[in-house]
What does this fold into?
Amino acid sequence: MSDNHPPILKRGDENDDVVLLQQKLATAGFALALSANGLFDASTAAAVADFQASRGLSVDGICGPHTWTALQEASWSLGERHLYFSQPLLRGDDVAELQLRLGSMGFDAGRVDGIFGPDTANAVEEFQLNSGLVSDAVCGEATTAALMRMSARVTPATVAAVRERAKLQQAPRRLTEQHIMIASMSTMAAVAGELATGLRRSGAAVSEVCDWPEAERVEEANRLEVDIYVGLLPSEEAACRVAYFATEGFVSPGGQRLASVLGQRLPAALGIDSADVRGMRLPVLRHTRMTAVQCLVGPPGLVQARLSPLARSIESSLTFWARRPA
It folds into this structure.
């Protein structure tokens, strides 16, 4: 299996990659009774689905690139390797635990996203300085031991969310000073276009990307330093789901608030009863550095039939959110 191009595995597959998948699931604490027989059967699909649900991923029982990445990250525990700022960035559950422990003691390691970036490196160095350790921004054996000892009784809630909320409360209360990125698929382009037109008419700066690979969407949003990221995707069913970034020890306050507003307004625009609003660790939400939501808004036929009400509903949600973003 190539790390850059992991195989997509689904029910009915039978090969050595399935054996590896089954072994990783068992290591992660899922399907402990599952034998690594190389057959992607019903029990393997159920274990994959359980793992996906536990990681805040889309649950489909199919092992694609996002699930492979999450399985790899789940294999690391804090203390099993040295953690430091590097390129490519180190990622894993050990990094997430490090960020959680630092953040719970008031050292701002940024979002608990499991990615060892500059904020995490600065927090490690600050912790080391305060603890009388060598301040090299490397989390090795001595730093890990001090973290374990000093954060053993700390409530798992980080300073990052507090600071992000404060930043939002100081932000402009109108869209005229906001930069919004709308990312869509071609089947959602008409809605995205009408939404962008309405937002520009309101004075907002708008960047549109359509059919871009996820990694490129994230990179562009971060490069432009947009204030709000809105992803629009179709779904197979006449249902609506709005997701924001959330993980243990961190919930994006702006994302949670915007998702809640959209969840209240989108159903009427789509002619459905309700929307599913939930915190998730989808890569696009995890890697963007701003208020971000991803909306699954129904099949293309429904979206086309409700195009204008849907666009107006999203625009009004953003306007309402801007008045009280957190």
Q: What stands out?
A: The chain is about 45% helix and 10% strand. The domain at 93-157 is CATH 1.10.101.10 (Muramoyl-pentapeptide Carboxypeptidase; domain 1). The chain has three domains: 16-74, 93-157, 172-323. The mean pLDDT is 92.
